[in-house]
Design brief:
Layout lengths: L2 H15 L1 E3 H8 L3 H13 L4 E2 L3 E3 L18 H5 L5 E4 L4 H14 L3 E4 L8 E5 L1 H19 L5 E6 L3 H17 L4 E7 L4 H14 L5 E4 L2 H14 L7 E6 L4 H7 L4 E6 L2 H16 L7 E4 L2 E3 L4 H4 E4 L2 E4 L1 H7 L22 E6 L5 H16 L3 E6 H21 L7 E4 L3 H10 L5 E5 L2 H7 L5 E5 L3 E3 L4 E3 L1 H8 L3 E6 L3 E3 L3 E4 L2 H12 L1 E7 L11 E4 L6 E4 L5 H9 L3 E4 L3
Parallel strand pairs: 4-5, 4-16, 5-6, 6-12, 7-8, 7-9, 9-10, 10-11, 16-17, 18-19, 18-23, 19-20, 23-26, 26-28, 28-29
Antiparallel strand pairs: 1-3, 2-3, 11-13, 14-15, 21-22, 24-25, 25-27
Helix pairs in contact: 2-3, 6-7, 8-9, 11-14, 15-16, 16-17, 18-19
């Protein structure tokens, strides 16, 4: 399929579905995922769709949370450097969290953590996960006693974060407080994805038919479990599904249907959103905040749902009179608009880093935060965490490529490996003259093919489509008769013990041939490569002469390389 036709098809597929994964787009267009990611990067730049780490969103989604952000702040640099006065963030990836903290400290930008503690944050806005889950477990225990003859066999669909694991522990403790004989049949990470929860639940029910209680630690997981129960035809009177969340409309509608889901723990995004905004305003004004702002929770059933929510033509709306009469809110919020009588300086713009844009919790939380901020005249800019992580790495790879290009001298003969960083390196080298470049990378070759000042040589070989590189005996044999001043090498993993490692044996053999053909080996590696062992060893660390990396690499990791006589160069931010 010609490139232009493929790009048009990608846009059409994404606009039709709203969101499509990279894997599904690759299958639909019969190309590799590498090609799709490159296409999405181009289409995102042209503002024809919105690229995410795992796929793409349509820009024409009805009320898409991220599509409402100011386009001028769509880039990582615009979001992180001086544009936002306070960040509200949910910790997702330790490496990115460290990067965010570092940028916040340098820019004197406060951070408010949402849901989960985060180093350097002024406070965390979160429910008491253990107590909330304990209460949900107790409710489930009473249901088991009255409906299941006191026999409980539990499937725990959890997620590997401290707050979600606390929910699982609290639920089991609460359930066992009522039904001591409760058996935990299976506790498994559903990766906070609906499809994963669906498959895991279907498999668990097939292998363990005695399961009669399912805990879902959020609504996305609950929706997947619900689908599996329905498709397997499980008896609703003999199955109890409970969810920690009641985040948007989906599970509330399910709850009143009185089927599998008979109770849910409400966390009230309508309360959490304004509290996050008020906490951000306090941090902006250097007002003291407690380590944690604990938001309320309530176990809701079909009988009690209407106390706190009313079903309307625009979905379920919270009953603020009930909230103010029955619940404790940790900060003073005015649900009708700005808090009267407060004389304070307001930030112009707040940033919200969202980990799971597809979750109803975050979709609803964004709406609530945006509406409350708008009453105060504050702009709220939303960025997806996966995109920020991806864009952060992409930005660092550009910086590494620029630093690598600075090592090149006129008349150099360069060997350039395949990879995203080396493609960026080639774009930098396209500005140079009087170079000889030998490469097995199709993108590198394409970036330099029209540069008359560069003598360009291909190794030949068999094309490996997954990485757009040429590999195999022919390519390796070509390198036996060539010699380069410098090799710019890319690997997937780097550790002191296993050394350099990579994913594919064919690519590893080519990398080893490149190392033998070069007088100097320069490794281009962002921080995600460090501390990882990939599948196949390329060679020991001592084969490297220089490493060009970014400042997110731990100081201890850089020091280990320096001890071995390897020069470590940090790309400039």
């Amino acid at each position: 399929m010609p490139t232009n036709h493929r790009l048009q098809r990608l846009v059409a597929l994404v606009e039709e579905a709203g969101f499509v994964s990279v894997a599904d787009l690759a299958k639909a267009c019969n190309v590799t995922e590498v090609t799709i990611r490159r296409d999405l990067h181009r289409l995102d730049k042209e503002q024809l769709l919105r690229r995410t780490h795992g796929g793409a969103f349509a820009l024409t989604l009805p009320n898409p949370p991220a599509a409402q952000t100011d386009p001028a702040g769509a880039s990582l640099e615009g979001f992180l450097t001086g544009r936002v006065n306070v960040w509200i963030a949910t910790p997702v990836d330790p490496r990115f969290d460290r990067s965010l903290q570092d940028r916040a400290e340098k820019g004197s930008i406060p951070i408010i953590a949402e849901s989960l503690e985060m180093g350097g944050a002024q406070t965390v806005v979160a429910v008491d996960n253990y107590q909330a889950a304990f209460a949900l477990g107790q409710w489930a225990g009473h249901h088991v006693q009255s409906h299941f003859a006191g026999q409980a066999s539990v499937l725990d669909l959890t997620f590997t974060q401290s707050n979600t694991e606390t929910r699982s522990r609290g639920f089991m403790d609460g359930l066992r407080a009522i039904v001591p004989t409760t058996r935990l049949v299976l506790s498994i990470n559903a990766r906070s994805r609906r499809q994963a929860a669906y498959q895991l639940t279907a498999d668990a029910l097939a292998v363990y038919p005695e399961i009669n209680v399912i805990l879902a630690i959020n609504d996305a997981i609950a929706a997947g479990a619900l689908q599996a129960c329905q498709e397997r035809g499980a008896d609703p009177s003999a199955m109890l599904l409970v969810t920690f969340g009641l985040e948007g409309d989906t599970l509330k509608n399910t709850l009143i249907s009185r089927s599998y889901c008979k109770a849910g723990l409400a966390m009230f995004p309508e309360i959490v959103g304004p509290v996050c905004i008020e906490a951000a305003i306090a941090a902006y004004n250097h007002e003291p905040l407690p380590d944690k702002l604990t938001t309320p929770h309530v176990v809701l059933t079909p009988e009690t749902l209407s106390e706190f929510y009313t079903s309307t033509g625009n979905g379920w709306q919270i009953n603020w009179e009930t909230v103010h009469n029955q619940l404790n809110i940790p900060l003073d919020i005015d649900t009708a608009g700005p808090t009267a009588g407060k004389q304070r300086s307001l930030p112009a713009r707040l940033g919200f880093v969202v980990p799971f844009m597809e979750h109803e919790w975050y979709q609803r939380l964004i709406v609530c935060m945006r509406n409350y901020a708008a009453h105060l005249g504050i702009a709220l800019e939303v960025m997806e965490a996966e995109r920020l992580v991806s864009d952060d790495v992409d930005l660092r790879q550009h910086q590494i490529a620029r630093a690598g290009a600075e090592l090149v001298q006129p008349s150099d003969v360069l060997l350039i490996d395949g990879g995203q960083i080396t493609t960026y390196l080639a774009e930098e080298l396209a500005k140079c003259d009087n170079l000889t470049v030998i490469t097995n990378s199709i993108p590198v070759f394409e970036a330099l093919r029209d540069r008359p000042g560069i003598t360009l040589m291909s190794t030949g070989g068999v094309m490996r489509r997954a990485s757009d590189t040429l590999v195999g005996p022919t390519a390796e044999a070509a390198l036996c008769e060539l010699r380069a001043n410098k090799l710019f090498l890319v690997v997937a993993g780097l550790t002191p013990g296993f050394g350099m490692s990579h994913t594919n044996p064919g690519e590893v053999a080519m990398k080893q041939a490149m190392i033998r053909a070069a007088r100097e080996v320069i490794l281009l590696a962002d921080h995600t490569v460090f501390g990882r062992d990939s599948v196949v060893q390329v060679g020991p660390v001592t084969l490297i002469h220089k490493v060009v990396t970014d400042n997110a690499v731990l100081a201890s990791q850089r020091l280990e390389l320096s001890k071995l006589g390897i020069e470590v160069i940090i790309g400039k931010t």
